[in-house]
Amino acid sequence: MTRPARVHRHSNRPSGGADCNVSLWVTLALVSGLCDAASEGRMMNSKIGTLLLVFLWSWHQDAQLQDARYYREQAGAAYNQKNYVQALENLQKALELIPDHPSIIYGIARMQSLLGNQQDALIWLGKITRMGMILHPEKDPDFQGLVTLEGFRGVLKQFEANAGPIVHSSIAFTIAEKGLVTEGIAYDRVEQTFYISSIHKRKIVIRDKQGRMGVLADEKDGLWSVLGMAVDSGRRILWATTTAFPQMSGYDAQMEGKSAVLKFDLKAKKLIKKYPVPGPGNHGLGDLTLNSSGDVLTTDSNTPAVYVIRHDRDDIELLLKDEQFVSPQGLAFSSDQKHLFMADYSKGLFDIDVTTNRARHITPAPDSTSLGIDGLYFCKGNLIGVQNGVTPNRLVRLELSPDYSRMSRFEVLEVNNPLFDEPTLGVVVDDELFFIANSQWGSVDEKGQLSPEEKLKSPLILHLKIGPK
To answer: Which residues contact residue 40 at a Cβ distance below 8 angstroms, ignoring those fewer than 6 apart?
Structure first.
């Protein structure tokens, strides 16, 4: 979800004073999978790369806060001065605040290696392998002191094993039109129709129950890039978010920071209202969800917040802004709708108490990371996440404790599917998750230029049966 400078994915990042070493943090982010182009020596041109740039900017604004970003900044500066002891101390402080952050763990392993603590370095690398990540520390000169160790070879074998596929999904349908850069998908149970959103071509396409394709709305209706969507079947409404991204066709710099929620009448198949985010600022609405009353909840990944359109007010307003948030993404209600779960690309999962509007961070399960989750869904008492902010991209099931304070179990449902090209959002239909498998965010640059036709693929929608835990 959401991502350019990603909202995105979205999502959707250090910098700061003159002594800040941004290159170290970017290196750590790359190797942790937040941008998986490290081995090619370039920033991946994708929704995730866009989110990284947003985070770099946001850290510049509040680097003096004594949070994980601050300590990572200090670690980068110390590393640049070859003060590895101080770098290690700051990374350890950052890890206390975000204990499941692969790049921080990787940084600690690097410092241990540089300090000659070989066994400690192997222990920290081992933690990342158990998270299921794929990294290549053998290519990192900071680990040259480990290359002859049997334990290091064992770590490399585990990283290699993490590249093994787990595939249970199958193709639901394919869209012939290339170059859409698909992001969101919604389903209307009444007409048995799917709606798919486009980042680049600024439109919402329709696939009816006979498999016929059409267009609900496009640029002529005032749409920018279209992201998350949800259908209120009973009220015959489709809700969608739209944000002006440089990756869309016809982008103009004057559009920067513009974002809105769209309301469509599904009987008339037309746009009936647009709800721009109020106030100045760089906004990036991404995902959204509905409750049974017809209220709409949506996340702003660029200026971190949650907004609401209440059914009895018909206006968009701020619901919650919390200093804990960095890059809000997917939203999902608990079955009783008393809790709103939110994925933050850089901080993990939050439980928002609907009564008090207070957010509480959910403690991750051991040997797992809940960072980098884009789409989030509540199904059969568990959360299902599309985790495209780590390498490898994967679908995961998250079992929570009865009070929702911690994650009791982390299960990978699908990973290393050769059809994946940055999976994004989905929709639960009965006991199946239908999801965008190959958004192809990397196929369009920040000037809105698509890759050559021969490099583009037809958008794929996969479906995965969500069985018992």
So the answer is: none
Distances (CA, A) of 147 to 39, 136, 250: 18, 12, 50
User: Among 207, 163, 165, 193, which Cα is nearest to 458's?
Assistant: 207
Single pTM value for the model: 0.88
Sorted by sequence, the CB contacts under 8 Å of residue 88 that are 6+ apart come out as 75, 108, 111, 112, 115
Side chain identity at residue 162, one-letter code: N
* Identity of residue 181: V
Using alpha carbons, select from 357, 403, 397 the residue that is nearest to residue 376.
397
Q: Which of 71, 51, 45, 139 is nearest to 371 (CA)?
A: 51
68: confidence class by pLDDT, cuts 50, 70, 90: confident
Distance, CA of 22 to CA of 200 (rounded, Å) = 30
Other Cβ atoms less than 10 A from the Cβ of 233: the count is 13
pLDDT at 93 over 70: yes
pLDDT at 331 over 90: yes
> What count of other Cβ atoms lies within 10 Å of the Cβ of residue 23?
12
Three-state secondary structure call for residue 217: strand
Contact between residue 166 and residue 191 where contact means Cβ atoms under 8 Å apart: no
Give CA–CA dist 112/241, Å, rounded.
Answer: 45
